[in-house]
C-alpha cells in the first residue's frame, strides 16, 4: 500500500508544481506587458514634453541636462520566451496505462513462427 500512496503523493506534487509554475508564468507575462506599456507611455510623454518645450531647446535644455538621452530596454519578449519555456518544462502529459508490454519476452525469438 505504501508504494501506491507515495506514487499518488508524487503525482499530486507534480500537479501542484505545474499549477504554481503556470500561475507564476502568467504573473510574469502580465508584468512584462505592463512594463512594455509603461515604456511606451514614458516615451510618449518625453516626446510631448520635448514638443512643448521646443522653443526652449526641449526637455533636456529646460532641465539643464547635458546627457539627457532616454533609453528604456524592452525585455518583454525575453520574459515571454522564458515563461513559455517554464510552462513547457513543468508540463507533464497525461499518461495512460496500456497494459503490460510483452514484446521484451518474445523479442529474442527468431522471426519465424515457432509455435
Number of domains: 1
- The total of helices stands at 4
CATH topology: Helix Hairpins
Note poorly predicted spans: none
SSE arrangement, N to C? HHHH
Percentage of residues assigned to helices:
55-70%
CATH domain class = Mainly Alpha
Structural class: mainly alpha
Shape designation:
elongated
Radius of gyration: 29 Å
Total E-strand runs: 0
Kindly estimate the percentage of residues that lie in beta strands according to DSSP. under 5%
Please state the average pLDDT score: 85
What is the name of the CATH architecture?
Orthogonal Bundle
The largest sheet is:
none
Q: What is the distance, rounded to the nearest whole angstrom, between the alpha carbons of the first and last residues?
A: 40 Å
Pfam family, one: TLV_coat
Protein name: ENR1 protein
Organism: Chelonoidis abingdonii
Brief summary of the model shown:
With 115 residues, the chain is mainly α. 65% of the residues lie in helices and 0% in strands.
How does this model look, in words?
This protein has 115 residues and is mostly helical. It has four helices and no strands. Helix 1 (2-52) runs antiparallel to helix 3 (76-90).
Notable features of this structure?
TLV/ENV_coat_polyprotein; single chain; mainly alpha; ENR1 protein; 4 helices; elongated; 115 residues; Helix Hairpins
Helix and strand layout, with pairings?
Blueprint: H1 2-52, H2 58-62, H3 76-90, H4 103-106
Amino acid at each position: 500500500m505504501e508504494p501506491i500512496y507515495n506514487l499518488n503523493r508524487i503525482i499530486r506534487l507534480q500537479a501542484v508544481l505545474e499549477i504554481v509554475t503556470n500561475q507564476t508564468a502568467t504573473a510574469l507575462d502580465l508584468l512584462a506587458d505592463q512594463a512594455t506599456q509603461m515604456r511606451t507611455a514614458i516615451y510618449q510623454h518625453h516626446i510631448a514634453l520635448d514638443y512643448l518645450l521646443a522653443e526652449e531647446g526641449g526637455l533636456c535644455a529646460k532641465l539643464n541636462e547635458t546627457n539627457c538621452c532616454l533609453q528604456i530596454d524592452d525585455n518583454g519578449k525575453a520574459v515571454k520566451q522564458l515563461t513559455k519555456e517554464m510552462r513547457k518544462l513543468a508540463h507533464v502529459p497525461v499518461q495512460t496505462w496500456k497494459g503490460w508490454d510483452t514484446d521484451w519476452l518474445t523479442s529474442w525469438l527468431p522471426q519465424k513462427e515457432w509455435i
